[in-house]
């Protein structure tokens, strides 16, 4: 879908549908909505009086113009209570509107900017939210479907502004929104790919394409190179699969005067059977998405490059499958990580922390700081927080606060979890330096404490997206399947750092 910012009168615009808005409780719309109502002979006000249009958040009312204006359909989008409107609600509303209009076979849609004037939303920020929300809401993964979709794709979205002086700010916001949405959709695509089409080698090839397209630095370590680095934890997970593991390092240098670089580390288990500690067969197909963290950091770095931010960022992605075989790591085995720390493997299904241990150790060795890792790490975090927010862990409060702020700005909720020393004790092993599972209780926290052992004194935070990396419901700008969670938080973190 192409998105354009134009100046003009939306009542005179040739389009399949135009989108106006209404706050909850407003009985006599003004501004553009009022002008459209007048052009339609007062039908919007009549429907408000009848209680058919209430202006509730995400309520979309369809009014047929019957030839009174060039557009076939007028969609009245509910903004909810005026005092409660924010950018993320505009994202969600834009998604809902576009999906509904797609179902009514609209291919050219024009919309006014939501939240200006009494809404208190800056026009550029609103344009960004409209672009983000519309693209994300219309996303669908149909790569392997041979049947043509019943509803055609929306081809064009026009953001219409009557005042030409505002166009530059609107265009800047729209451009940024497109880049952020497209990065999020890239992550969704990678996670939605079946595991036979998204192996560690395939993931490395995607990184190579991104590096060429956006001028990024790329290093891919193979088995022998990882062995030379001492990455025994990562290679221990990989030894059960015939697919060769990869350590993918994708870097953007936007601040050439600085030698400092953020490190974004993403878990890249391209399929997780649980290994010898095999998972139940029910739901195992979803384990193709155990590389959602890898997809998030890869997509985030590509967006940071496109935004040309004055910041240095490097993504480190340990990529492998976790499968049972005659060569697989067994419960009770001891592995040695890149730091020299020995790990007793008590559960081969706690493999994510093993590959992240070596990736974090490598990131520290490369001088990356601060570090943020993102991973579909524990079912325990999903149990604790459900699918509405991700767990946030770490000992550096300044970094934690920055991530919470970035999450709030992006619409991705993060909840800080405790990191008390007592949880660390649960990871003690009788035969090695540490074991890879502290047991059932507090599982998300003990997993985070395990990772903390490999970052030394580097400022670090861990985001557990086990409950938020995918969804089985369509709501706002989330659609069924992969969500791309974490991409936008990391982008906003980089934006904040560049400031």
Walkthrough of the structure:
The chain has helices at 31-39, 43-49, 87-103, 123-138, 167-192, 200-214, 223-229, 232-238, 292-306, 352-365, 379-385, 397-410, 421-425, 443-452, 487-498; strands spanning 2-7, 17-23, 60-64, 73-80, 108-112, 156-161, 217-221, 246-253, 262-266, 268-272, 312-322, 334-336, 342-344, 371-375, 390-394, 414-416, 434-435, 460-464, 470-471, 481-482. It has two domains: 2-163, 3-Layer(aba) Sandwich (Leucine Aminopeptidase, subunit E, domain 1); 181-498, Zn peptidases (Aminopeptidase, 3-Layer(aba) Sandwich), CATH 3.40.630. With 499 residues, the protein is an alpha/beta fold. Helix 4 packs parallel to helix 5 and helix 9 runs parallel beside helix 15 (487-498). It is 36% helix and 20% strand. It has 15 helices and 20 strands.
**Low-confidence segments:** none
End-to-end C-alpha gap: 31 Å
Integer tally of domains:
2
Task: Report the major sheet.
Answer: 9 strands, mixed
Inertia-based shape: elongated
What is the highest CATH level, the class of the largest domain?
Alpha Beta
CATH architecture annotation name of the largest domain:
3-Layer(aba) Sandwich
**Structural class by SSE content:** alpha/beta
CATH homologous superfamily annotation of the largest domain? Zn peptidases
Query: How many beta-strand elements?
Result: 20
Query: Can you give the mean pLDDT?
Result: 97
Count the DSSP helices. 15
CATH domain fold name of the largest domain: Aminopeptidase
Proportion of helical residues:
25-40%
- Evaluate the radius of gyration: 24 Å
Strand content: 15-25%
